[in-house]
Amino acid sequence: MAFEIKALPFTFVAHALAIVGAVLVLVWCIHFRGGLAWESSNKSLIFNIHPVLMLIGLIIIGGEAIISYKSLPLKKQEKKLIHLVLHAVALILGIIGIYTAFKYHNESGIANLYSLHSWLGIAIIVLYGLQWIYGFLVFFFPGGSTTIRSESLPWHVIVGVFAYILAVANAAIGFLEKLTFLENSGLAKYGSEALLVNFTAAVAIFYGAFVILTVVSQGPPVEDDYSYTAI
Ligand code: HEM
Ligand code: HEM
């Protein structure tokens, strides 16, 4: 399904929101929350890696991977390689990001997997991993037959969009959950940090929306060499 609207302007808005979202989450975790650390006696610094990698990795780089087919003036094969590499980076950063949430919980004596956010999170990363493996095997190496590729493509797009929307929704739940914890421990509800966290989540949601708008609108014309074609 593609609306008769050009995708390129949506990709520009998405890039701009990606930069704003990345800067905001870094300002939050480094300036307001004290920084990032893999090992520390202050366990919150270990947690801080989680939102940074989930937003910049899974959401922002994953979103750039999706829009790469419509945002880059390159040949189909080159875009395919960029799409799969960016998704691999998003997946790896997502896995490390989830690992840091577990590491923080384990080192702080907090239970694992008690929340809606954590259950959805596990489902999303598993689906994302399976989607990547299937995409790689069918569209890249060793590559399926023409029939398998053309029949798989609509499923690849719909499952990819499904996993991505769930990821953006779960990131929003994550921001909300963390901010609620902080407010319950005394953080001012109308203070600058609370506004910053809510604003970061809003930017993430708008970014996700523009990624989806790109998917449902039209890529470059099919006639030229830089075409957006079916498979
Ligand atoms: C799509 C992106 C995200 C995924 C897939 C994800 C996944 C997860 C998972 C699996 C856990 C469970 C760790 C455990 O049980 O030990 C977790 C914990 C947590 N995450 Fe995320 N996360 C994402 C984004 C975020 C963001 C952006 C924030 C913002 C601060 C956040 C905040 C939290 C918090 C506060 C916890 C600890 C409480 C809990 O387990 O629910 N998450 N996350
Ligand atoms: C978790 C990883 C992945 C996700 C979430 C994902 C998602 C998507 C989405 C949403 C689209 C539609 C883009 C659009 O129409 O604007 C797409 C297209 C596509 N993806 Fe993936 N993808 C993933 C991994 C891969 C991998 C590893 C390959 C292997 C090469 C691949 C190959 C393709 C191809 C060939 C298209 C069609 C492009 C076209 O119609 O011209 N994907 N993907």
TrEMBL record:
Keywords: Electron transport, Heme, Iron, Membrane, Metal-binding, Transmembrane, Transmembrane helix, Transport. It comes from the Eukaryota. One of its GO terms (molecular function) is oxidoreductase activity. Residues 13-216 form the Cytochrome b561 domain. Its main location: membrane. GO terms for cellular component: membrane. It is an enzyme of class 7 (translocase). Its EC number is 7.2.1.3. Its cofactor is heme b. This is ascorbate ferrireductase (transmembrane).
